[in-house]
Amino acid sequence: MTSNPARLQAIAAVQACTPPPFTFDPGEEPGEIFGENVFSLTVMQKRLPKSVYRSVLTTIEKSAPLDPAVADAVASAMKDWALEKGATHYAHVFYPLTGLTAEKHDSFLDPVGDGTALASFSGKTLVQGEPDASSFPNGGLRNTFEARGYTGWDVMSPAYVLENPNGNTLCIPTIFISMTGEALDHKTPVLRSQQAMSAQAKRVLSLFGHEEPENVVAFCGPEQEYFLVDSHFFHARPDLLNAGRTLFGAKPPKGQEFDDHYFGAIPERVLGFMMDTERELFKLGIPAKTRHNEVAPGQFEVAPMFERANEASDHQQLTMTTFRAVAKKHGMECLFHEKPFAGVNGSGKHVNFSIGNSEQGNLLLPGDTPHENAQFLVFCAAVIRAVHLYGGLLRVSVASASNDHRLGANEAPPAIISIFLGDQLADVFDQIAKGGATRSKEKGTLMIGVDTLPDLSKDPGDRNRTSPFAFTGNRFEFRAPGSLQTVAGPMVILNTIMAEALDHCATVLEAAVADGTDFDEAVQQLLTSIISDHGAVIFNGNGYSEEWQVEAEQRGLKNLRTTVDALPELVTPEALELFEKYGVFNEREMHSRYEVGIEQYVMTVGVEANLTLEIGSTTVLPAAIRYQTELASNVATLKAAGVEADTSTLEAVTTPLTALRAGLAALSSAIEGAHEHEGIEEAAYCRDTVLPAMAAVREAADELEGLVADDLWPLPTYQEMLYIL
Ligand code: ADP
Ligand code: MG
């Protein structure tokens, strides 16, 4: 019997290959290439007639609609620029509910009728596209007879040229909506929620004496964690290839316990990859800034400078696309799955969130004067109200089958959404709660409009890594989002729940002022009432502890452990009313997102279950049987020779082998059973029946991995995938 398992072939291939080193040009300044492939404001200013440029600027800054005459001029300049950059095609890029990025490519060339073709690109083609997009999830928003979706240019997100060895493409970031104007994507609601939040924030700013304040925008700085594995291993793991995570694999003898990887030296090959990705990101105008090793072996992180939420989320998608492509070039695969390796630290995408504008700056930054502090505290209090009232929505914004493996697994925040304020700010709000509306300054109470805040620490030591939503000195860091998901989802929720909370603040303050209440006193009253109504969401302790689970329940905080628990949050009467009121989603759109959420969950678990069945039956089981046969024939040979045979190894292998067979049979019927359920019931069935059946198969297989002869074991091990880079 000869066997050359894929795993051994992969190891040999990794050993034999020396990937081309990334040739870094030390003479090149990063500034030289930054934004080189972006049709930026600077490029537009150079190439567009003044009046056209001004009109585009107004559209961007004031969110005004784009004048069709202007669109033609912009399209023409954009086409010339793109052709100079080697583009042969253009694509409307959009962000369907799969969470991925979709593109529809069209050639610039139009046949003229005399056998030749001319490069053409009109304002209309720039502004609107009509992909036949019936295969994108829509949760019932589109029937097939009206399958067309429309894409529309988001002027606020610049077009860019994406390079490809086979020809470059002009990419135009767009929204994606149905014939009836309902959102089928992640960008449309970002733009809508952004407007809603801005309108309410401006009311609050006006109360603080800022006349006709500028639009307020949400800023987002997404930190991205990821794993790299050698392509040879990746291709020898059908589970990684098809599901993005390992469905089998025993924990390596050397895990992350040594803590030697975090912020350790970056391996040379990975450094080459990082330099290459940064260069590509710079060309696209993406301000990648920090890079370091993460907790787990093979795990790394990249963080860009924060940008407007809308642009940041487009850039974030583009970053993932770039990382995947560049990794391949370097003979590696970039894994964004939240939990590619069980028992090893998973990956998140921390979303740093603040709001502000160029006049008043960052509204979550404590100021220097009592008046500025009062304003800061109102915006902070709004966050507290928002997160307390709508924690369930924040939870569902990070819910996915893949993130379920990470949340609450003592490496990521729990599924309970609470706020960490840090000692000083928590103390400030304590004082406010005690101080009430009295004018007399008691010991230890802070008077709004009179006292300045104590220095709020930005010391990273003060950070609470176990909190899902932490104040970090000038922003909140939402730590629950998964590494695979778009940041648009959380940004939509944050903007919308902030719109509601700021609306509340503005309404209360406006009424008090109209009643003749002193403004500082009105602010003090507002803060006191918010903190007494919503202070329960503030938690500075250890979010990983058992006690917190109990305490959170006593405080009335939701603990939505899984996606299946979280999804119904999208369609509660309160949620429907909230989104309708601020014009972010109508009821149909909310229901469609709920349906798509269920569909994605069921599909993900379904694919994984089928893969587990397939790999278990065709890869693991045969290897184990071969080894069992080898052991059995060894026993038989010894017995025939009259030698006493030790059968303990044979028995040790036979037990998990029997369990594996039983597990596979049980999984097979579990998969069958899914068809008897529908909707959220089917999702619950997947969680409660299919996932445990997969786990049972895995348990037996992982035990066999520790028993079967190494030269027969077919799947690259954790050890190999994590440590060979
Ligand atoms: P850490 O690991 O300490 O959280 P990083 O430097 O890795 O810090 O990431 C911090 C992220 O927060 C960066 O993307 C940064 O641009 C972003 N950020 C900084 N200030 C703000 C802000 N005011 N609003 C939104 N994001 C911000
Ligand atoms: Mg961080």
Q: Layout of SSEs?
A:
Blueprint: H1 6-16, H2 30-33, H3 41-47, H4 50-62, H5 68-84, E1 87-94, E2 102-107, E3 109-111, E4 117-119, H6 123-127, E5 128-129, E6 149-153, E7 160-162, E8 168-178, H7 187-207, E9 217-230, H8 231-235, H9 238-243, H10 268-283, E10 288-293, E11 299-304, E12 307-308, H11 309-329, E13 332-335, E14 349-357, E15 361-362, H12 370-389, H13 391-397, E16 419-420, H14 423-435, E17 469-471, E18 476-478, H15 488-514, H16 519-534, H17 546-554, H18 563-566, H19 573-581, H20 587-640, H21 648-673, H22 679-705, H23 718-723
Parallel strand pairs: 1-8, 16-17
Antiparallel strand pairs: 1-2, 3-4, 5-6, 6-8, 7-8, 9-11, 9-12, 9-13, 9-14, 10-11, 14-15, 14-18, 17-18
Helix pairs in contact: 7-11, 7-15, 10-11, 12-15, 12-16, 14-16, 15-16, 20-21, 20-22, 21-22
The structure holds adenosine-5'-diphosphate (ADP) and magnesium ion (MG).
Explain what you see.
- The chain is an alpha+beta fold and 725 residues long.
- The chain has 23 helices and 18 strands.
- Strands 9, 10, 11, 12, 13, 14, 15, 16, 17 and 18 form a 10-stranded mixed sheet that branches.
- α14 crosses α16 and α15 packs across α16.
- The protein is globular.
- About 1% of the residues have low confidence.
- Bound molecules: adenosine-5'-diphosphate and magnesium ion.
- The site of adenosine-5'-diphosphate has 15 residues, from β9, β11 and β14.
